[in-house]
Amino acid sequence: MSNNKNDEGDILQEAFDDLYKHTIEMSSKYNWQIIAATLIAIGLKTYKTVLTDEDFVSMMETVKESTSQVQPFEDTKKPTLQ
To answer: Which of 63, 39, 60 is nearest to 51 (CA)?
Structure first.
């Protein structure tokens, strides 16, 4: 019997890894700020599509309140923002 929460965690990690790999590949063509802005725009449009207006506003408040907890990627090669 599988643990559904663990399966969701595995799927989330797999999606993250796939998107991260593609993002790194994109960095050879686009600068990091363009990539980040595009990812945010896609994410917000997706949330706006799948959440109710109330849930979207609540999620945005949660994001705003969590800004101090966001950590940069820990990589020996930091991306250059151009």
So the answer is: 60
Domain that holds residue 50: 30-59
How many domains, the chain?
1
| Structure token pair of residue 44 | 């917000």
Secondary structure (DSSP) of 36-80: HHHHHHHHHHHHHHHS-HHHHHHHHHHHHHTGGG------SSPPP
pLDDT tens sequence across 6-53: 788 899 999 999 999 999 999 999 999 999 999 999 999 999 999 999
Two tokens, residue 65: 């309140």
pTM, rounded to two decimals: 0.71
Q: At what angle do helices 32-50 and 4-26 cross, to 10 degrees?
A: 140
